[in-house]
Fold:
Amino acid sequence: MLFVGAMINASKSKVLSLARASTIISNINVSQQLHRLPLSPQPALYTAGLQRFSSASTQGQAAVSAPSEVLLTESCVKRLEEIMDKGEFLRIHVEGGGCSGFQYKFSVDSNRNEDDRVFEQGGVGIIVDQDSLEFVKGATVDFSQELIRATFLVLKNPQADHGCSCGSSFSVKL
Structure:
């Protein structure tokens, strides 16, 4: 509540400073909930139920968070292991439509095009074409199973301004 009153009377630069400070505070709280992986010569990595997927061309390098990565939750990885045959991938494609302007499309695909980025680990993976990657880089893909449906969802998409209630449509940040 204090931040709201302070932001109304503050200049733009002070608002940005308050936003950065609240982000740092949020990150401190989040880091207390993360689990540290065992020590190794590589930089420390933290997990929160997410699997880091790196492009096949960079697998030999140390894993460093990059905005062009697509993260998968453990439930997504588990479901992909259950439904995918060898050589098949989950393709994520973004197209115009839906109630918010753009929508996510998921399909099983064994063909890789020249402009595709492949993110894989442990025999399962996803394919994202270069155009769609601009809309989903840094996002998290989840598998959700409820009484009325079971579906893959894109969560925490830093490229999206807001989404619709069903989770399949979004608008982009300008």
